[in-house]
Amino acid sequence: MHQPPIVTRFAPSPTGLLHLGHAHSALFGWKAARVAGGRFLLRIEDIDPVRCRPEFVAAIFEDLAWLGLEWESPVRVQSSHLADYAAALARLDAMGLLFPCFCTRKDIEAEINASGHAPHGPDGPVYPGLCRRLDPAQRAERLASGQPHAVRLDMAKAVDLVGQLDWRDQAAGIVAARPELFGDVVLARKDTPTSYHLAVTVDDALQGVNLVTRAADLFEATHVHRLLQELLGLPVPVWHHHRLLTDESGRRFAKRDRALTIASLRAAGHTPESVRDMAGFIP
Ligand code: GLU
Prior knowledge:
Pfam families: tRNA-synt_1c. The protein is an alpha/beta fold.
């Protein structure tokens, strides 16, 4: 039978310079496509208007090219595709699965403190449901007055609708999806009309990505992505969550650690080969 070619992607957010952990991730996806004779894509995930900067986008291109990676053009830049996320959101809304959330961080904290129990999800405290329980008239009034709001998924309703799902990870095997761990996830933020979970799901489908490779710190996020795929009728890829590269003391790399950015290693005279080696990819 004819197998479609493997399509992988590396999808960094331009909120800082790429470090060795990113190099590992990029090389992982690139190699997975290459050994299978497949395609490798680069996507710029720049939906955060405050933290993303054009100079970091330029640095991503420069650093990856210097490392010896090649990717297809044009590169998808999320901020140029907000209409695609709006369309997905409208579809979920038509299914009655969304609600506007006017809460501030403070409102949420106060409610959690008052309720005396605070379940924690992979993205932080689980939303206590204040705006889900809003009286419809009050909700309409607040919307009409233009009060800023995020848009959340009614998780219990969504899970009820699709039932138990699973997904396949090349490293972990078949995984039972547990999106309920997240509670009512945000699908559109107050400051930007989408969220990481929505944009990544829509884009992987639109771009035909059928092998999602990324670090193990995003393993849990896949529960939500699998649910969104089901709700939106999107194709389901295979995942490979690879190990999270750490520094010598076992700490994960962070964008704030300047020393191990690809740019600083290059400036210190390292070759692309030696940086690929440090990132766990010996040629
Ligand atoms: N943009 C995300 C990040 O930089 C990665 C998205 C993904 O691979 O799913 O953490």
